[in-house]
Write a structure and sequence with these properties.
Blueprint (H helix, E strand, L loop, with lengths): L6 E3 L12 H21 L5 H15 L8 E5 L8 E7 L2 E8 L9 H14 L3 E5 L3 E4 L4 H6 L8 E4 L2 E8 L4 E4 L2 E4 H9 L6 H4 E2 L6 H12 L3
Parallel strand pairs: 4-5
Antiparallel strand pairs: 1-6, 2-3, 3-4, 5-6, 7-8, 7-11, 8-9, 9-10
Helix pairs in contact: 1-2
Length: 226
């Protein structure tokens, strides 16, 4: 797995099953690349809305996502959530969040990275991308990743920060056992707190006191060390 904050081309964000072949895709991406070069040559500031209209939306559509059935703009998973710029759907469920920033905007701003991850974590979406239309950063490791890599084992005890009496036990990369029920990580956290959404990675704690967020930060560093 690539490091979560490595820069990758915008065109590699994701392609849904049954997407168009490489011919139309390459043609569309060449046009987007030409638009990037033209905007940079003009030298003026490019607004976020223009970046989305000229660069990001055409790229997502070129990758095969259908704008009527599979793309939702300014999507809120819950009414009180902040909207994400793009939510990409498969089988009527969000599977990828894309948060846009202006062309030329630095993707190193930790505030933007955390914002994007928080949007995805609150909705239980494993994949998220922060992009300025020319380059993108992919999301950090999910519980599925940690489980598959053997870093989060079945049977691991988890608690919710500040509510240590409501422990759950990891079953796999997506679910825990809580009071005899099999629940997703998010559903367990919401059950314990009574909240309608939860940033489970910052609230769920391992026996040593680290949150899942702190644990996966260390896991990512370990996975990319030569």
């Amino acid at each position: 797995m690539a490091p979560p904050e490595s820069i990758v081309p915008m065109s590699r964000i994701s392609t849904p099953p049954g997407a168009a072949g490489p011919g139309p895709l390459h043609a569309a991406l060449r046009q987007v690349a030409a638009s990037i070069a033209r905007l940079r040559a003009d030298g003026g500031q490019v607004l976020e809305e223009d970046t989305k209209r000229i660069l990001i939306t055409p790229t997502i559509e070129a990758l095969g996502w259908d704008h009527i059935a599979e793309i939702r703009n300014q999507y809120r998973h819950n009414r009180r959530d902040n909207p994400v710029d793009y939510a990409l759907f498969l089988n009527r469920s969000p599977v990828l969040y894309v948060e846009a920033k202006p062309l030329g905007g630095s993707l190193d701003d930790r505030k933007w990275i955390v914002q994007t991850l928080n949007y995805a974590n609150a909705a239980g979406v494993d994949w998220c991308v922060l992009t300025n239309g020319a380059e993108s950063r992919r999301r950090m490791q999910s519980t599925d990743d940690l489980f598959a890599l053997g870093r989060l084992a079945a049977g691991t005890t988890l608690t919710i920060r500040g509510r240590e009496d409501f422990a759950a036990w990891v079953l796999d990369g997506q679910t825990v056992e809580f009071k005899g029920e099999r629940l997703s990580f998010n559903d367990w956290g919401q059950r314990v707190t009574g909240w309608t959404s939860i940033r489970i990675y910052t609230m769920a704690c391992l026996p040593d006191g680290r949150t899942l967020d702190q644990f996966r930060d260390k896991a990512e560093a370990a996975s990319t060390t030569p």
